[in-house]
UniProtKB/TrEMBL annotation:
Alphabetical UniProt keywords: Coiled coil, Cytoplasm, Protein biosynthesis
InterPro entries per the UniProt record, alphabetical: Ribosome_recyc_fac, Ribosome_recyc_fac_dom, RRF_sf
Function: Responsible for the release of ribosomes from messenger RNA at the termination of protein biosynthesis. May increase the efficiency of translation by recycling ribosomes from one round of translation to another.
Coiled coil (residue ranges): 140-167
Name of the protein described by the UniProt record: Ribosome-recycling factor
């Protein structure tokens, strides 16, 4: 493996950790409705537990209401029960075939809890990024030890990897700030 391979692999892995972080952020509840909130809910379907999106159509009615349209009429009660029993604090209401899931307004205390959760997720993403930097630097040091690269190349590569790391950490900080602003908006 060359220094260029290490650099490109590290950059790709850091991009994956940011993508995973963004995915985690979509699951954190804000005051606004977001169909991704219901992605973690599983429903009992013919003896097996399946994601809600596989048994119903999930969409937005307006900025504060999610609609869930079951594909089978018999699934309505099971879906409603699964949403109610989830830890999201949602109270679905059945209207014929359609299940409406209104988003209750969040209290100031709950908003602050959510921003703490966002910061924790951000810190976890930064730790993952720093671990990738450490692994890349270790791989470069191994190349130098095995005399496949010079010490000058090592210093240059470590500086480049640090720049990549700084860029990814700045992106994580930007995502955290944006999500916090979204949560605190009333």
């Amino acid at each position: 493996m060359t220094i260029a391979d290490i650099r490109s692999t590290t950059d790709a892995k850091m991009n994956q950790s940011i993508a995973a972080f963004q995915n985690n952020l979509t699951k954190i509840r804000t005051g606004r409705a977001n169909p991704a909130l219901l992605d973690s809910i599983h429903v009992e379907y013919y003896g097996s537990s399946v994601p809600l999106s596989q048994v119903a159509n999930v969409a937005l009615i307006d900025s504060r209401t999610i609609s869930v349209q079951p594909w089978e009429k018999s699934m309505g009660a099971k879906i409603e029960k699964a949403i109610r029993e989830s830890d999201l604090g949602l109270n679905p209401a059945s209207m014929g075939d359609l299940i409406r899931v209104p988003m209750p307004p969040m209290s100031e205390e709950r908003r602050k809890e959510m921003t703490k959760l966002v910061r924790t997720e951000g810190e976890n993403a930064k730790i993952a990024t720093r671990n990738l930097r450490r692994d890349a630097n270790d791989a470069i040091k191994k190349l130098v030890k095995d005399k496949l690269a010079s010490e000058d190349e090592q210093k240059r590569a470590e500086a480049e990897i640090q720049k990549v790391t700084d860029r990814h950490i700045a992106e994580i900080d930007r995502l955290v700030a944006a999500k916090e602003a979204e949560i605190m908006a009333v």
